[in-house]
Amino acid sequence: MPSDTKARILAVARELFVRQGVQATSLRQISERLGITKPALYYHFSSRDDLVRSIVEPLVEDIEGFLRERMPGGDARSLLEDYFDMIWRHRDVIVMMVRDLSTLGHLDLGTRMFEWRRELMDRLLGPELTMAQRIRATVALGGMSDCAVEYAHLPLEEVKPTAVEAAAVVLGL
Description:
Layout: H1 4-20, H2 27-34, H3 38-44, H4 48-69, H5 76-89, H6 91-99, H7 102-106, H8 109-125, H9 131-150, H10 156-171
Helix pairs in contact: 1-2, 1-6, 5-9, 5-10, 9-10
């Protein structure tokens, strides 16, 4: 369990990274906002990349756990609903990554995200997909992620039903 100071650093850094972007946020800004010294911040995080990695890691763990738990051939609509719930929980981190795409490169997330999407497609529709099915699945899953980012300020119950239904229609479910 993270210390109170570490948790406060993560919360403030996440807020500033989402609002300003990772590259536009200095460790000095974070430490000043918290009323702590930069050495105190460095005690908990060795670098900005270390701090970003700590913020992104729960998303990575959730996605990888989701893919481990979901077996191919299950109920596709239920999988879409559960996937949307997961990305919704991490929408601020997704906003942070989209706002500053260099974050993906620093943490080698770009390649991993495409691998996760292919695995999710296999669980939704099976491994033997036509190119048209792959394209539709890319639109469906990407569209759901975009909805979590674009409409993050709205209540979940207003966004999720429409996003999941649109994805299901695109997939022909």
